[in-house]
Known about the structure:
The structure holds three protein chains of three kinds. Chain A has helices at 10-30, 34-59, 63-93. By secondary structure, chain A is an all-alpha fold. Chain A has one domain (2-100): Helix Hairpins, CATH 1.10.287. In chain A, helix 2 packs antiparallel against helix 3 (63-93). By secondary structure, chain B is an all-alpha fold. Chain B has helices at 3-25, 34-58, 83-106, 113-132, 136-154, 161-192, 197-202, 209-226, 235-238, 244-253, 255-265, 267-270, 274-297, 301-320, 325-355, 373-387, 393-407, 413-442, 449-454, 460-475, 480-484, 497-506, 516-521, 527-544, 548-563, 565-595, 597-609, 611-618, 623-648, 651-688, 693-697, 702-725; strands at 61-70, 73-81. The relative contact order of chain B is 0.08. Chain C has helices at residues 2-6, 8-26, 33-49, 53-57, 70-89, 91-95, 101-120, 124-142, 149-180, 212-229, 237-244, 247-272, 276-301, 307-328, 331-362, 373-376, 378-392, 398-412, 418-444, 457-475, 478-489, and strands at residues 59-61, 66-68. Chain C is globular, with a radius of gyration of 22 Å. The two termini of chain C are 20 Å apart. Chains in contact: A-B, A-C, B-C. Chains A and C meet through helix 1, helix 2 and helix 3 of A and helix 8, helix 9 and helix 11 of C.
Amino acid sequence: MDRVFGEITTSHYVVLSALIFAVGLCGVVTRRNAVVILMSLELMLNGANLAFVAFSRHHANLQGQVFVFFVIAVAAAEAAVALAIIIALNRVKGGVSIDDATELRG
Amino acid sequence: MDTGIVLALVILAMPMLSALLIAAWKRVLPGGGDVVGIGAMGVALACAVTLAVGFGTFGGQHWDFEWLRIGDISWRLGIQLDGLTVALLVVVTTVSFLVHLFSKGYMHGDDRYSDFYRWLGLFTFSMLGLVISDNLLTLFVFWEVMGLASYKLIGHYFFKRSAYLACKKAFMTTRVGDVGMFLALLALYLYTGSLQFSEVFAKSALIPGGATTWIALGLFMGAAGKSAQFPLHIWLPDAMEGPTPVSALIHAATMVAAGVYLVGRMYALIALSPVAMLIISIIGCFTALFAASIAFTRTDIKQVLAYSTVSQLGFMFTALGTGSNIGWVAGLFHLVTHAFFKAGLFLGSGSVIHGCHHLQDMTQMGGLRKKMPVTAATFLVCCLSIAGFPLTAGFFSKDMILKSLWMGNGEYDAAYKVIFVVLAFAAFMTACYMFRCYLLTFEGKPRDHHVHDHAHESPLSMTFGLCVLATLGIAAGYGWTHNLLPSEHANVPATHPLVAQVASAGGGHGEHGSGGEHAGGEHAGGEEGGHDAAGPAAAEVHEAGPGAPMVAFVRLFRESDEHDAHIEHQGHVAALVASSIVMSLGIALACFWYLTAVGARFRKASRAAIERIYQAAYRKYFVDELVEISVIKTTGLVAALSSWFDASVLDGLVDGTGSVTRKTSDASGAADDGVVDGAVQAAAGVAWGGGGILSRFQSGRVRNYLFGAVASVALFALIMLYVAGN
Amino acid sequence: MRDVMLLLPEIGAVAAVLAVMLADLWLPKERKGTLSALAIAASVVLLALTFVPPVAQGGHAFGGSFLVDGMALLLKRAFCVTAFLVFLMSREYVAELPRGQGEFYTLGLAALTGMFLCASVNDFMSLFVSLELVTVSFFVLAAFKRDSKLSVEAGLKLLVIGSISAALLLYGIAFVYGATGTVMFGVLASDGSTFENGLRTQAAAGTLVLSPELQLGLFLIFLGLGFKTSAVPLHVWVPDVYQGAPTPVTAYLSVGSKLAGFALMFRLLEVVSRAAPVAAALTPFLALVAALTLFYGNLGAIPQTNIKRLLGYSSIGQCGYVLLGIAAASELGLAWALFYLCAYVVTNLTVFAVIIWVARATKSHDIDDYSGLARTNPLLGTALTVGLLSLAGVPPFIGLVGKFFLVGSAFQKGDTLRWLVYVGLANVVIALYYYLCVVKRIWMRDARTAVAPAVPLRMKVALAAGIVALIVGGIAPQFLDRVTASAAAGAGIVGTTAR
């Protein structure tokens, strides 16, 4: 039993971060609604953030934690732009499904 | 890697390859992909035979790799080859190959011809993977994949309501069994810290006695679901809604064998609990009798075979339930022989159905022997084998089952004696109803002239398989199976899988070659030699491996057998006498009832006398209705409660889980759109000649792009890690 | 203070962004044209700033996070030229947009700032931030015509795929950080003794072995950068976005954004090439990606009927050649990759200039509408022909020289990369086909429309200069070669000791 529920190591955090990242990835790949895709992307970034924090603790230096603040800032900027584009999409297509955006192909 | 492992991997890869190729290019491949499927299975069969022939020189082999490491917990996956595995590889590839071939004729002109071959390939892949797994984890994965493939195959005619209900029923019923199995796996992991067979066996001493019984019963529950044992047998007769070749492959030879295989594979663990063993034996015996009685009342030829399968699987479990070596050999030996003659019977029924333009009711047949001589002859041979006619394969295996019961296991000998009697009666019924089936179909006067006039013999692609299977229905009793499954005379030869497991766990391969093979080839002559040579080899292994408890277990039976040599002899005689008598009586009774006028009158009179019992059997003893009330209604109630709980309490949480599931299913949908369609389109591009190939991937759909990109990233990662690993 | 002086071009770029933004607020609507002049002037000033002594001498700042060496300087100058040419050719195009002139130049200059930073970063944190500065700017630029379905679709596709590659990149960085304990590039070049927890273990034979974490991390980072450089598999956005985005944005994207991605790749590669095991682990992967990219771009281009889309595929193919040089991972490969990219800046922008001006007359990007261009406007026809032939690698234009030596650098790598050489050569032949199809229409077909595209004097001069540059560069490549070779040789020299 101890082997299953033993001490929580960095590996556990990394596995969790991989899972969060993977959930986000699945969401991005499978969802049609652009807003949900955006949310899934945030989830991916947060998966990476968790890994940074875990590694930061593991190495006992602060670089990883500082990195996370930059990522959060960048993600906010990205989200702002993304929402603007989604609004534009809604205006020209009348919906926010990315499956509507298929005029460019070939 | 060793030669055997490479061969096993090739065997495993072949059907998967066929399934993938057909899935991707079904419109391009010649004949809708049937050539690919048949060819791939041909290669696999050749490899399997090579493996079996060379098994004496390869010996047991084991190969694994580290799959995952979390903290200090390491998961290893791999392949294990021993006598049992190799025997089943041969069986599965043989039957699957013949079914692939047979389907070419039988499924000709079907709308979903290619899909049929695709799922056939996936099914075979999962069955093979299950057999070669060296651990319960991959075994369970393949087990479930097989459930999926069988679901798709049973539901091949999904536009028929009965078919889609049947595939749902099969899927749900086996899932019930899987719950038990899954709990057993969890418990095993908690106690032993591993799911690898060798490690689980080596550490089986760590499991407390009571837990062993529950784990054994949990495993048996999974096995009972897959192998259609009472009360989880209800799906198998309904599963006859699938195309007949599927019935032959899945519901006769392979998938239903998976449960028996699981019990056989985990024998070293399950046998530690005599109580569990007795329960298995009783359930097997009850199922054998129960299903045989229902088989009498069926008029649909496939239904008879379905209940016969349930009954025969009961025979196997009964033998395994003795917990003795000979019981182990007998159960698995019967698995092998049954696979051949039952597949032959199913394909034969398929040939009849095909010849009679999709008529399945035996009461409208009769006298078909002249119209379809090959089918009739092969059907008869297989009937003889299942009835246990002397010198057929079924005779040897059934004989051995009875013998093992007579000998018991030293714990509940009296109970096993009772079971012996009941099972002998079931064997009598088997002989009787199988000949009823044969006589109704092929002999006597045609009862429906329209059907009879239009009946015709099937094409060569179909009859070829029948001939092969009929031959194997006799030949499987000799030679090679003894070589792979140790003969009963050399009680524990060195090729015994249990010993091989211990040896591979200890890292040694040296115990092979001395006695085991000789014991097989001429099993009567090599008796003494095999017996003696195995002794020191097993002792040597005992010193070597961490699997000491296992060896001790094996030795226990060796010694007890030596002590009770005369009991063995007695069992031999008892089994021989009993099986000969019941077989003769059964066949004679069937002939009397169905061939003579007096018999027919007698039959009708006696049927009126037992009308109530007959009706009960005809209604399958109301088990379906019982399940309907007890399980489905209860489940419905629970579901309603849960639904309320869900809606009012757990909304957010469950919604989250649900959306993950939906995402997963969407992902598979995307895979279909993106990968499959993309691949087909790409192939068309090649056909048009030249440059437009890649622009077809540029479908304009972001989700396809993302899927392609993410899939490629994963692929690249694998390639890169592989290259780096070398 | 010296640290700050090294950042003069970046500070200048930010100042230019702010200046344009403010000017946009102050200028009355009829005088918005001034913004274009402001942006063009800014790019010239920024180019000049890279020659100011403290910057031109190079050095590193902020504890080694920021690095100015030969390669960084060369790339920054290339970025300035790119921005200059793009702003020059898009003046009229932007002026005719219903709204947002100021934003166009503001975002263009913001992207330029990001590119500058990309050329100089020396740690993963700056890498991520500067890369995102470029990417996010381009999200908006691609969707700039927000009433146009195609433009919004292009923006959306760039957004989704760009964000997912950013996430992959970030995750890769997390793993590299996990394996090494630092976000500085320099650690990748160290001898391994600085690595913690034995993640990179010393094997018995004394060889360094890469830990799986580090390997996975580098792999994801290179894939994420592949998004910018349009390398397989994150190249999928390229044809769609190139077609849908406003043409000046496509031009900027095809050169500036790609160059920024390559700048980072070069930087990382230059660092890891000093650590043999890291380089050895990456080479087969890069070679595979190069081959796939080449085939994808060149085969995909064949059936195209839209010239912007064709150039999208072509741009993927061109990326493949540069990757070929990167896979060779030698100083020679790096030098020729730089050479090739500098040539590519001029070539591709020449082609896009023609496209912008033809489309102003014909309102179409259909390749068939280029029929007879040589007759209706000989200058445009000639410029497009020269540009496309140079992209195809036909003598005597500059593209041939670059291709020849890039393939040559892979050839020198020996037998392991010999197959890649053949792939490169095969693709030259394939590419020739679709470029020549366009050229054939320009010269041998009759014009479809009577509209003759007219160009202002400014563009005539620029196009003529472009034609001359492509020919001179092809005949006498040594001038550019000398610059790029010294830049490659000087790469990283200033900053190797930075930790």
